[in-house]
Every structure is written in C-alpha cells, then in structure tokens.
Design brief:
heterotrimer; A mainly alpha; B mainly alpha; C alpha/beta; B: mainly alpha; MetI-like fold; elongated; C: alpha/beta; D-Maltodextrin-Binding Protein, domain 2; Dipeptide-binding Protein, domain 3; 12 helices
Amino acid sequence: MTALPAVAGPTALPRDGAASSSPWHFWAYFNAHLHQDLSWLWDHVWLSALPVVVGLVIALPLGWLARRFSWLYPPMLSISGLLYTIPSIALFVLIPPLFGLKALDPLQVPIALTVYSVALLVRVVADGLASVPEEVVQAATAMGFGPFKRLIKVELPIAVPVISAGLRVATVSNVSLVAVAGTIGLNNLGQLFTTGFQLSSPTAYYPPIVLGIVLCVALALTFDLTIVLTSRLLTPWRRAVQGQ
Amino acid sequence: MIANVFHWLTNSAHWDDHNGSAGIATQIRTHMSYSLLAVLIALVIALPLGLVIGHTGKGTALVTAANTLRALPTVGVLVLLTVMISPHFHGRTDLGYVLPTEIVLVFLAIPPILSNTYAGVQNVGGATRDAAAAMGMTGTQVLRQVEFPLSLPLIFSGLRSATLQVIATATIASYLPLGGLGRFIYDGLAQQDFPQMIGGGVLVALLALITDLVLGLIQRNVVSRGISGRFSSKTTAIGGAASADIIQAEVATV
Amino acid sequence: MKSKVLIIGAAGAALALSLNACSSKAKAKTASTTSAAAGSSSTSSSGAPAAGGGVASQLILGGPPEFQTRVDGVSGLAKIYGVKFKSYKVLDTGGPVTVTALKNGQVDAADLFTTDPSIAANNFVILADPKSNFAAQNVLPIINKAKATDGVKKTLNAISAKLDTPGLAALMVKVITNKQDPDAVAKQWLADNKLDATGTDAAGATLTVGSANFPENVLLADIYADALKAQGASTSTKLNIGSREKYVPGLKDGSIDLMPEYNGSILQYLDKTATATSPTDVLAALQKVLPSNLIVLDQSAAQDSDAIVVTQATATKYNLKSIADLANPAS
C-alpha cells in the first residue's frame, strides 16, 4: 500500500483520539454518540411497538370470528403457522414491491412485523376468548348483556391475561426482528451491530455491539413490564382472588 | 414476479452445484444440518432440565431466566460472538462462523422446549401423581413412566415451535460467510435478484412446513392416544398459563 | 408406556444418525458457500492438479455477494485476464469478514478496497491491474437533479477539490484503526480544510444522504451531510444501505437524494459494456448513461478502487505481482 501517507505512522496518532475497544466501554460509546444512538433507539421503539398495536386492532375482530365460527379456527392456525415460517429478512424486502412503496421506505418494517403480529395475535385472541368459562358467558347473558356488550364488558376483560401473554411475546420478538432490518440499512439499533461489525478489523470493536444488545434487551424488558403492569391494572379482580 | 420465482425454483441448473458454488440441493442439506444440530443440542440441554425442574419444583428461576433469553437480539448476539470467536480459527475451516451461528440457534431453541417441558410436567394432576406413588413407584419411576409420557403433547409442541423458529432463523448463517438457504436471500438482496431472493424465502418456508409435518407424524406415533385426546380445543385443563407458554414458543426471530 | 419411551429414544437416535450423515456430507461438500473441500485444513496447493492449469484454479477467491455478478467481478477477471478461481466464497464488502478470512486462510485471494488500512496492517499484497479490469475510481457525489441547487453544488464541489487519495487513506486509519466516530472524523476533516464555515449557500435545501455498507462510504456521506448542514441545508442520513444494486433504485425513486460514489463502479453498474478506464474518460462516459433524474458533480482526486489482494505468503509462493500472474501455469 504505497498510497498510505506519513500520518498513518503510530506517532502521528494522538492516543486520546483512539476510542477504547473494550466491551465494557459501551456506555462511553453511548455518550459519545448520544444524538445518533437516541435517534436509533426512538426508531426502534416505534418500529417494534406500532406493529403490535395495529396487529391487535386487526386481530381482535378476526380472533372473535374464529371463536364465533369454530370451523374458521383450524385453517386460521395453519395460516398463522405458515406466515411465521417466512424468514423476516425476505419479508422486509418483499413488502415494498407488494405495497408499492419506495425501495427504502421505513414503513416496510412495521408492515412486515404487523403481518407477524396479526398471525400470532389472532390465535391468542381466539384462545383468550375460549378461556372464558361457559357459565360466565351464560350468567352475563342471563343478566341481560347483548352479544356485543357481553364481549366488551365480560369476555374481553377475562381474556386479558391470555391476550397480554401473546402481546408480550409479539413485542419482545419484534424488538429482535427490527434489529435484523438494521442489517439491510434501515435506521434502528441494528445499525449499531453493523457499525461494530464493520469496525472489527483488524481487532474486535465491542462497544457499539454491546451497546446495541444492552439497549435492545432494556427495550424488550421495558415493553414487557409495561404490558404486565397494564394487564394487572385491567384485571383488578385477579389480585383480589389471589389475596384470599 | 411469481412466474420468475417459479422459474428460478424449477430451473434444474439452480439445483446442482457448479463452478464451485453450491446449488439449492446442497444448500438445503447445509440448512438442515445447521438447524437439526441446534435443535438436538437444545433438546439434550432443555428436556432433562425441564423434566427435573417440573418434577422437583426446584429451579424454576432457570425457566424464567431462559425466557429472558428471548429478549436478546439475535443479530446482535451473532455479531458479538463472531467478532469474538472467528479470528481464532485458521485454515480452510468455517468453524469460526458455524460456532456463533449454532450458539445463537441453540439460545433460540432452548426457551420453548424448556418452558413447555416444565409446564407439561407441572400440569400432571396431583391425583395422578399420588396414584402412581400409591402403586409403589419411586420418584424416578413416576417421572419416567407417568409424568414424561403425560407431558409429551406439550413437549412436542415446544419442540415443534423451536424447530420452526430455528429453521426460519438459520438464514442468518448467511449474514456470515456460511451456506444454507439464507445464501439465496442475502445474495439475491445484494445482487437485486428478486426471484433468487424470494425463491430462497419460499424454500425456507417449505422446509419448515415439511419438518413440522414430519414431527407431527412422529408425535402421533409416540403420544398415547389416551393422552392426546385430552388436548382438544374445548378443554380448559391446561388453562391460560400453559396456552400462553405454547404461544410464547411460536415466534420466529429472523 | 415403556415402549413409547423406547420409540422416542429410537427416533432421537435416528435423528442423530441422519444428522451426522447430513452434516458430514455437508462438511465434505459444502460446509461453506462454496463446494470447496471445507473439511480439509490443508492449504489449497496440495490438492489435485488444477483443471484449468492456472495458479488461480487452485485458489479460492472471496468478496461481497455482488462480486459474483458484477462486470468487473468474477466474470471480468475471467474475460480480461483468463483467471478462473477454484471457487468463490461470499464474505462481506471489504470488511472484517473478508480481512479475517484472507488472513486466516479461509480464502486465498480477496476483493478489498485500496484505501483499507487493514491491507498494510496485515502485510497483504495488492495485485497490480495492468489491463484495468477495475476502472478509475474517483470519489464523486451523485445527486438528484432537483436537489442540486447552485449552493449545494458549490458546497459539494469544494469538498471534492480538497479530497485526495492520501488524505482519504489517512481518514480511514482514523475510522478503522483508531475506531474514531466517522461523523466526528468528518467534522474534523471539514474543519482542517476550512470547509466547516457556517453559511447560507445551501439554505432551504432538504436532502437525504445515503451511504453504502462500508465505513469509507459512511464517512464520505457524513462529510457531505455535515458540510451541507453547515451551509444551512436540512439533511438526514440513511447509512449502510447495502450494495450498489440496492441503493441505486433508491436514488432513482427519490428515497435518497445524494450518495458518495466511485466513478468507475457506477459507470460499470449503469453500462455493462463500458470500456473507459482513465478518470476523464470514465467521467465523460458516466455523464452519458446517468438516469435522467441524477447528475454527478465534480470528481475528487481521491481514488479508492476494488483490488484483488493476497497474503504475503501466497504472493511469494506463487510469485504473484499482478492479477495476470494468477493465470500462470501452476508449478
């Protein structure tokens, strides 16, 4: 490499200019790239949360249908199982041509993840509604609840624990899936892995990689905790029963 | 588009190896060997562990800990392990990349198998256990002859979810310089060769479905009909918690 | 009950057996992307006599996925030099995977970038390219015509005027060897070259700056974005998008407005039959084949070309100095 200039010599490199490669310096890395990292974190938050919310909105009526017309349940299980076997990286790239989006439209990630979320949540909603004891439904009917009011006031609240278990799985897996999209150039915490990987030459450069893992795990656990707490708030009677 | 994908899949030249690059047939074999190895390792670790934890009721914290594994971003762990491990392998070997891939896939497969095995043993009724003990069975006998067979339906559902997940995720091997069906997806992406990319995706899905079908057949032959009959969709015997466990297992990560 | 357990055991054993058969086959045939004998740890030269006769037919080449289909990739090496490698192994775009694979002997030759400090750090040898398989690769901005106001052009041309090959190589040492933040290095370079003065040349412009998936391109995108921002433009970045095959459609459909490019590579991407090799010829040819919504601005003196790189040991063993030597008969 004759093109290498004189400044490449070690003496010309200010020691303080070089960043540490130690895995434990991820926090220093975070502080040094605060603006960029926070913007990726925020992208990651909405990219993983939005699909679950949209997915739930779509899955509620579908799951109710599958419960109401039981012949729908088996084919729905097969379809949701099938959707889950599609590798996410293929789905990400497939979405833009299917939906007429631009090649790098950030919407391709939430749309793909919504597909996964709906596949998972339809089943969860149906199972959740199935977990409502028959005598409760009959009691509600006897008290004069119409089908819709019964669904909203009685069946759905009782299904909350099962549905929230499904939401937890969907959200936590979304956090991991969004990072995959970072490897194909979409802005989110996955970019930290790409960055760290690319700079791991000639020796490993851990800080961005470790930071990415730490932030992803923290995000997943925060989502998880939020859903658990919300579910508890929505089902006060469960605590009352447990307290006895 | 669909015609092009179909053409890519049915072109026999794409199935054979030539000029030193692997064809579809070879990549399917590679993909399956990475996937099955990971599931097998996970099974060897998680199955005995789940049985023992379910039987003794001790060490449930391990099940919780395994479930937190799910929060780990797959790509991140893969990159971390790769930059740690791969520089230490010299010569014509892919072990430096196979190892990180297998570790990540095993991480993925352990939680569904472990939590389902544990839940399966847990769900065996106290009366059943007492009856077995009353018949003079020792603790090990109860576990091997009563609890294990009774929990097979849940164990199988965990195993099947783990396998689905691992086969779909094994595509990340090709984020590293490894083979498998992910090669078509990543290469198709870099070359903007959509038929190749989508064809690769279709093959992964097909492979996962066929494997699930085979496991379903094995399950049918292995699980006593008296047991499987209990798990119709109407039964609430396993309740919300167990059904959540099953749901938890069914998440692909890549 | 007992028989059921036995059946499971048998099924498990069968599974294990078939897996063993499977994986050993896979190892013998393709534990890798290639069908090279990945199981053997010996170096390639100890193999059977090469079919094609040339040195290359005993060697494995590694590089990014798209190098297999690029005009100046595997096919260009075959057409121009008659060099055919034993097999091609997909690695990454001149990144750590490629460097490690070359250093540790997973491949014998690799496609790297000439400004990569890893080449000097590992004593790799760049094989000369006397027949110009790789055309001139001057760095230049490619930009959406509608976004290229006079002020934006002025700002970017000022950057190209200051950028040269040694300067770029020095920046790469900072980014790759010292792990300095590309954006900080970009700002420092702009300051060192007195290009960081705030102004209003680009005021009112809104641009999305993209980059390919390797550090140098990320750095160049940061330099463009920071300079434009200093001149009042509102910029956002989409870094690490991927290969040219992936980001050029983004440039065409307006997802990205501006990218740092290399004139020879983009020319060959747009015109597979291009023959120009000198910087001026390449630029002239490029102007003719650009998509209607894109233009290129002034090109810089900085060159960063693809290069076929081997280890010192391989170079000595086969007496390799240029790509042409790879076609020599194997001794």
